[in-house]
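Quarterly update, task 2.4: NAP-bound model.
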Amino acid sequence: MDTFTIGGDIEVRRLGFGAMRITGPGIWGPPEDPDAARAVLRRTLELGVNLIDTADSYGPEVSEELIAETLRPYPEGLLIATKGGLRRTGPGEWPRDARPERLKECCEGSLRRLKLDRIDLYQLHSPDPDVPLEDSLGALKELQDEGKIRHIGVSNVSLHELERARELVDVVTVQNRYNLEDRHSEDVLDACSEAGIGFIPWFPLATGDLARPGGPLDDVARSHDATPSQVALAWLLGRSDVMLPIPGTASVAHLEENVAAAELELGADELDRIAAAA
Ligand SMILES: NC(=O)c1ccc[n+]([C@@H]2O[C@H](COP(=O)([O-])OP(=O)(O)OC[C@H]3O[C@@H](n4cnc5c(N)ncnc54)[C@H](OP(=O)(O)O)[C@@H]3O)[C@@H](O)[C@H]2O)c1
């Protein structure tokens, strides 16, 4: 599987795993089947995945706790990327809170739950309209100077916010919503490709209509003996060398299918055809 080096010193396989779906409905509380969630996590490592994305807000706390409980002692080379800056007030509710004191609290909590001395990739989950970006990122910079964070990433940013963030700290990854159907972040992706910043597209499988039988993905999928979901992931990987998809699932079968997508190579004409159809 193709690799990408984050921040100049962490090499990861480009197809990662998003650990948001191993919690309860509405990303709230424990998963309905904790053993199945643990089986998914164990299988990620067996399949060679070494980028796992999580956040203190997934559950909240549930995703990080399950990761630590299931995967420790962590194998060498595993990057657990987490995030802070959102609160949880109920299922499906995610108010922002990126005040410096809150971010420090989030980071300390993640260190404790993940049982790590340092978080190798810590991401600002979202800029907070009530807090200057300088203040939020200033807090992450302090945590970095204290050795609690190795690299800083940002999430849910506009191009303008990314440019401002890069003036304040060394941004090594951006995590924005991006998939075949939703390419609002195309300008951010282009900026990342140009600067060698990892781009982590969330909601990478939202193919909707594209996955319908007889649709454009279905067509290409059939010719490669693959599934539409695999084509959607292969399209992302083919779109840019900095692309690091983190499909989320609570199913071992879907995980295996998604990881296998990294081996699917699409021709330039197929990539264009898929993009045009979307
Ligand atoms: N930064 C942010 O603000 C933000 C926001 C949302 C998510 N994220 C991160 O991004 C990751 C991915 O996003 P996401 O989980 O929302 O979206 P996603 O990966 O595009 O889709 C996940 C959904 O697709 C299903 N699925 C997964 N693999 C499948 C397959 N091969 N075939 C059919 N269905 C499949 C899953 O259901 P099953 O469980 O049934 O497989 C799940 O409901 C999250 O886990 C999280 O780490 C970040």
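Highlight for this quarter: Residues 193 and 242 are 6 Å apart (CA to CA).
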